[in-house]
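Note to self: user wants both folds in one dump. Writing first protein now.
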Amino acid sequence: MKALILRLDAPMMSFGTVLVDQHGFIDRFPGVSMLCGLIANALGWHHKEFDLLQTLQSRISYAARWDVHPERTVDYHTVDLGQPKMREEGWTTQGEPEHRAGGPDARFGTHQRYRHYWADGLMTVALSLTGEGTPSLDDVVHALRYPARPLFLGRKTCLPSRPLLDPQSPIVEGDDLLSILIKIPIWERGDSRDDFEACWPAELESSQRAHIRRVYDLRDWHNQLPTGSRLRAEGLIGKGHT
């Protein structure tokens, strides 16, 4: 099989997971829907192209490895819903101001938000597209080299520090995604570790010790809602080739 090799390197990355109240939590690894959105953005697709997005998401399979261990950080900010501009006619379809339900504090008060990020990490991703159809891996390589729009890793504030494609080997062949990932060289920053956190498709048979976990990283693109789950293997893998 063939896999696209991505190097995700940014001051901050955000792999969104289930939102709980005012906390925008993150997963340890990117979700399938996030990778789908990343590719679609590079291709210049729009949210209204539901069928294209849903088909692309169903074709994505990946394995990922943290080459540089990230630190968790939390961004605290507030939203003042009482500002005059927030009380006037805004982004509505009926021409009337639209506010949160509840009392005055909920409608016009100051709301706190906590957004979680991974800071100063570097991740390698081996990504494949199953089945036939558009885009092909070559289409994705071209789109990531010449993206239709600026790319980001999770939230729009998470701008990559370098081009996303591996500069030496943007496409690599191997038996499966895990074996491909293991043979991709580690990009280190003076770290002497021998084992690295990784994830890969749960259905792969592997000698690697792994924990099988259910993750909720799929999206109903037509209704713009998170929906569906899958099983993912998580564990430690060795350096492979350096």
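First done. Writing the second protein, which came from a different request thread.
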Amino acid sequence: MKKFDIRSLTYGGLMTALVFVATAIIPRIPVPFTQGYIHTGDSMIFVTAILFGWKHGAIAGGLGSALADLYGYPQWAIPTLIIKGIMGALVGFVSHDLRKSNKSITAIINTVIIGIWLAFGVTIRNFFNEKLGNLANSELANKLITDMGLKGTKELSNLVSLVNNSLLASIILIPVMAILVYILLRKGNKEAFSLSSIMGMTVAGLWMVIGYYIAGSFLLGNIVVPLFSIPANLLQFVGGAIIAFIVVIALRKTKYFKNFNN
């Protein structure tokens, strides 16, 4: 086996372990109602995929995250294996492999990603409002209060308002923040971080929200309750992206990583 293959395999195993540790060992925050949790594991998936490409991203993301779910949340292990595996592949393809493509093609794909994000955000918010826009004394409201262990209609209404506002903020702020971060911080870091890296994490975050909503609908037997997990997944994605941004820039400035890339 070539020296590069051994080193690549070693890094793959190391990053899988880091995804596991960041997901299962670093304290995680349970998300009420959905049987899920918020964690920092996404940051290591992003780092792996951006630095080493879609294959490493898919393996480390899927395997590391699924193993972590076996510690306390085994019902999510199989969905997570699929969702996080695809997530890592998406980040790696857009930020690492696509980055080497023609600049015009890259620009078009980045624009499409932003368009998809906006379209998804508007669609999911409209769906949320359609399902939960009028809960007063409804059968659905009573069922949600019972299933989610809420104290009453007021608490449910407050929760609905929080999710609705979070969705609206995410629709607008995430694409804007992605572009601003790129413009403000890329100067002096042209080789350390790219717009494709930010777009790769964005499309991966979008996929994660969709994937866990679908999985949650099956696991919970309800298409409404998983909607309440969307803000938590968005928060996890944004936090993971920020951590990954810092780590990737730091690593790409090191002499050792430059030698590895060469």
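Dump finished. Worth passing along: The CA atoms of residues 66 and 141 lie 33 Å apart.
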